[in-house]
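stage 2 :: seqdesign
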């Protein structure tokens, strides 16, 4: 078989044997169709069947039924008509081998596309084999799982090879990529048990054997493995025009809120030994290595055996499990009597999770003593429990039958629109579609039978988990998954809760905290981030006392955790910022630059020395930045206002610290010679629009005014003096200290770029701009602004800027130069597939609109700095009409909003598949979009319009 070609030989052998056991070799789909759904939309079914021409009756009925029930599969059938006709008479193993044999590329984008293409065809083939009555549940889930293994291994080996070729993995050769240079990917959950459902995500834990790595190379290797893991997830889960391969979830790793995405064996072992919880023990029942160094993976799981399987009969696990079930009893769909409309077949009463929970808990109880129970698959586990006498055969049969039936329903729910859903339809029409998809015409009879089965399973599992006394008091927690809820069991061991006083206060706060979590749009995400916040607290008494006295702070904390995890991580280490929240001015409009400078100076005056002043400035800046972020999160200000506030904060830091740095420098080298110097803000700083993570583009210009040397104890020539003073300023701003750093500094826009001096004289700057500067440097000057330093010098620089722009206006090569710059930017961006949320890059993106706006203002010789004002100049040139200018401005404003929200929630680029639900809702509320799909559609339309306008303008030259 070829399903695992491209995987290490040992992996290939293991998995080939596994798949060989479930796929009937030399048997084709065409010859084995025995069933078909009932077409819910007959017209769609008939139209799709007609697209295939003459068909055998059984295959025609299958295609018609499938297309009439599933819009997703209908699209695949129409897209893959020729391919399907070419393979349905071939043996199944040959079809699957051909699918994976076609995955041959080594490049990131090319391989991503091929994997998505193969996954779509696999999804179609598996669906037809399932719906046609040929494959059993085990064949379906094992085939999906096998392809997931292949995709993970193929992607991993490709990425590892690339890192080795780049020299980023010390002491590794290309042949070491076969075993991923020592990386191990553990399949967890349904993938680990080879039970993957039709639209399932894949739960992975990525590790490496640090004992096998030379100590000198350990840091570089760890960094490379983390990069590889992140790119692996991106390759598999990023939604592109071709779809996705598998949504990937790494949150089952130890302490996911604080640990890197790839951790060492020793770090994982230490965690499980000291902090491992019952739900993590249960998770490892299903664990298996699926990619990378398989042998090392099995060695790691061997070391985990004592953690998972206790030597004694672990009846305490029942109590633990029962306590957790009580805490999640109010989970959406679990409370009250079973109602089929909208019932969650995975998490609802009597559903899939109840059966899995029942099975795994029984395994944990006795698996330490009875190795026969150490199996991954749920159905196999039920059979083993019955064989060994831990449950009756009747119970095993009932739960096995229900489990298979539920998984069939789950698959059909997901096949309808390729959605990761487990909810039964909420409408009569939806239920009728589902029944037809399952092959039933009598909806009422089917509902009665399903309801009876759910009640029977609930009765069986509930009796096992009957209270035994001594369990923790139940707390009402809506919409929380069992694994996430059990994270709370680790809270008493956190540093912030280790004292009796802290623990007592926190226990009084706990119900309010959990009620706040339950109100979050995605309680799971909020609780994970809250867990990270609590883990980051060095102590808790002071903060918990503050919360107890001011309960509204709890809701604010939960909202921050749900919407802006970066802010939560910040307050975990800077809990004193909550004192500022209690100040009535916290949500008031922020002061202007002068007011901010005054506040900073008041903070600095009490600092005893230079280093203390720099640290005080860092603390103050972070507090103000936190205030801006919370105001943005709470919709007190919008993204545009937040951008202005961040820019004012940066300017205040420059204005406030400049004399501190200058005075400290003067102690040794004397006061500034001549007229002094000016910090020129460029880019977004000059335009007065930053994000929470922006660096600062600056140029330092001085005027020695004929003075040759400084007058300090150690004399320096004027150029050297200002160069060293500039370096001191950059160090004061950018160097990491006890309180972190203020800003990253970028000085590449200075004359001659990196080759030029870090500080340039006024006369030299004027001469360079007049005689030597390139068009791109004049474009950059359209956003330049004097922000800190000698005011008179700043006014002279601004007058020169205006005069220069006027002199350079109407240049005959500007548009040609801009077109060339645009092409270079596009080449540097590379081919990245669908841009989607990447609003900065590509035709019609932020950079594109900024560039053409700067060209417009340069040709006009205008002094306008903001993009909206600059676009008006284009209207005056006749480049676009007023309506088109408005469309360009609307595009720019929307893209800036998306970028601003992304940076607030800790993402370089907004991505609804990876940021929290709170962030998604925040963006939708601010943009006025009804849904993510609608917003992406709007982004695409605006990008296309803007790109077309810019193309037309540049074609005029």
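stage 2 :: out
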């Amino acid at each position: 078989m070829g399903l695992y070609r491209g995987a290490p030989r040992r992996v290939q052998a293991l998995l080939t044997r596994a798949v060989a056991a479930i796929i009937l070799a030399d048997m084709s789909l065409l010859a084995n169709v025995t069933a078909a759904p009932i077409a819910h939309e007959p017209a769609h079914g008939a139209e799709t069947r007609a697209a295939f021409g003459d068909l055998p009756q059984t295959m025609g009925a299958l295609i018609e039924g499938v297309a009439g029930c599933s819009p997703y599969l209908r699209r695949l059938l129409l897209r893959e008509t020729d391919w399907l006709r070419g393979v349905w008479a071939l043996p199944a193993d040959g079809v699957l081998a051909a699918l994976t044999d076609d995955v041959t590329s080594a490049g990131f984008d090319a391989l991503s596309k091929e994997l998505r293409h193969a996954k779509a065809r696999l999804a179609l083939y598996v669906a037809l084999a399932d719906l046609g009555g040929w494959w059993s549940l085990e064949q379906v889930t094992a085939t999906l799982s096998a392809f997931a293994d292949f995709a993970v291994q193929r992607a991993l080996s490709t990425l590892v090879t690339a890192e080795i070729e780049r020299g980023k993995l010390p002491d590794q050769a290309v042949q070491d990529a076969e075993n991923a240079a020592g990386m191990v990917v553990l399949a967890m959950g349904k993938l680990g048990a080879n039970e993957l459902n039709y639209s399932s995500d894949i739960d992975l834990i990525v590790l490496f054997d640090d004992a096998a790595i030379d100590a000198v190379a350990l840091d570089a290797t760890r960094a490379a493995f983390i990069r590889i893991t992140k790119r692996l997830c991106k390759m598999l889960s990023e939604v592109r025009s071709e779809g996705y391969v598998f949504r990937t979830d790494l949150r089952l790793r130890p302490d996911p809120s604080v640990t890197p995405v790839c951790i060492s064996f020793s770090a994982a072992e230490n965690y499980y030994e000291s902090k491992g919880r019952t739900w993590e023990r249960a998770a490892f029942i299903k664990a298996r290595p699926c990619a990378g160094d398989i042998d090392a993976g099995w060695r790691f799981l061997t070391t985990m055996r004592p953690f998972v399987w206790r030597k004694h009969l672990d009846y305490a696990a029942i109590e633990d499990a029962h306590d957790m079930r009580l805490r999640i009893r109010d989970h959406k769909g679990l409370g009250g009597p079973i109602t089929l409309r909208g019932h969650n077949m995975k998490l609802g009463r009597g559903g899939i999770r109840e059966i899995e929970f029942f099975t795994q808990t029984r395994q944990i109880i006795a698996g330490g003593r009875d190795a026969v129970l150490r199996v991954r698959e749920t159905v196999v586990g039920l059979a083993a429990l019955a064989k060994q006498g831990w449950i009756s055969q009747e119970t095993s049969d009932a739960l096995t039958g229900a489990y298979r039936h539920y998984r069939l329903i789950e698959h059909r729910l997901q096949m309808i629109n390729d959605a990761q859903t487990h909810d039964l339809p909420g409408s009569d029409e939806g239920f009728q579609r589902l029944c037809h998809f399952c092959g039933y015409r009598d909806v009422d009879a089917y509902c009665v039978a399903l309801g009876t089965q759910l009640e029977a399973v609930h009765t069986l599992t509930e009796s096992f988990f009957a209270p035994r006394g001594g369990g923790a008091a139940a707390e009402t927690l809506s919409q929380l998954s069992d694994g996430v809820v059990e994270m709370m069991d680790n809270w008493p061991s956190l540093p912030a809760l280790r004292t009796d006083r802290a623990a007592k206060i926190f226990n009084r706060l706990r119900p309010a905290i959990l009620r706040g979590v339950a109100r979050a749009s995605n309680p799971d995400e909020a609780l994970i981030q809250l867990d990270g916040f609590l883990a980051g607290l060095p102590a808790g008494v002071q903060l918990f006392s503050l919360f107890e006295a001011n309960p509204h702070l709890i809701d604010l904390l939960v909202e921050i955790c749900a919407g802006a995890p970066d802010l939560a991580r910040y307050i975990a280490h800077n809990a004193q910022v909550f004192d500022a929240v209690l100040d009535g001015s916290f949500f008031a409009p922020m002061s202007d630059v002068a007011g901010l400078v005054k506040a900073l100076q008041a903070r600095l005056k009490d600092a005893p020395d230079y280093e203390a002043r720099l640290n005080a400035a860092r603390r103050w800046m972070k507090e103000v930045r936190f205030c801006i972020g919370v105001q943005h999160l709470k919709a007190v200000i919008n993204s545009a206002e937040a951008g202005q506030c961040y820019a004012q904060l940066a300017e205040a830091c420059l204005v406030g610290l400049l004399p501190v740095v200058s005075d400290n420098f003067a102690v040794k080298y004397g006061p500034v010679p001549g007229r002094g110097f000016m910090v020129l803000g460029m880019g977004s700083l000059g335009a007065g629009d930053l994000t929470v993570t922006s660096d600062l583009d600056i140029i330092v210009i001085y005027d020695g005014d004929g003075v040759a040397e400084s007058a300090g104890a150690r004399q320096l020539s004027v150029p050297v003096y200002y160069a060293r003073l500039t370096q001191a300023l950059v160090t004061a701003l950018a160097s990491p200290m006890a309180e972190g750093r203020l800003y990253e500094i970028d000085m590449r826009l200075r004359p001659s770029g990196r080759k030029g001096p870090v500080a340039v004289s006024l006369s030299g700057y004027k001469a360079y701009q007049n005689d030597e500067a390139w068009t791109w440097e004049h474009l950059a000057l359209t956003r330049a602004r004097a922000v800190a330093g000698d005011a008179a010098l700043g006014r002279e620089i601004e007058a020169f800027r205006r005069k220069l722009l006027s002199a350079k206006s109407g240049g005959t090569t500007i548009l040609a130069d801009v077109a060339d710059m645009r092409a270079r930017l596009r080449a540097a961006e590379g081919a990245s597939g669908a841009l989607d949320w990447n609003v900065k890059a590509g035709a019609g993106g932020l950079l594109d609109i900024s560039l053409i706006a700067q060209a417009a203002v340069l040709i006009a010789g205008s002094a306008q700095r903001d993009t909206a004002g600059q676009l008006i100049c284009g209207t005056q040139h006749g480049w676009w009409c007023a309506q088109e200018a408005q469309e360009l401005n609307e595009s720019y404003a929307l893209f800036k909003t998306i970028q601003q929200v992304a940076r607030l929630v800790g993402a370089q680029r907004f991505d609804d598949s990876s940021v929290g639900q709170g962030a998604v809702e925040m963006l939708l509320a601010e943009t006025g979009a009804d849904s993510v799909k609608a917003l992406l559609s709007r982004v695409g339309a605006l990008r296309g319009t803007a790109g077309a306008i810019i193309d037309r303008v540049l074609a005029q030259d």
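stage 3 :: structure notes
- Confidence is low (pLDDT under 50) at residues 1-26, 467-478.
- The chain is about 60% helix and 5% strand.
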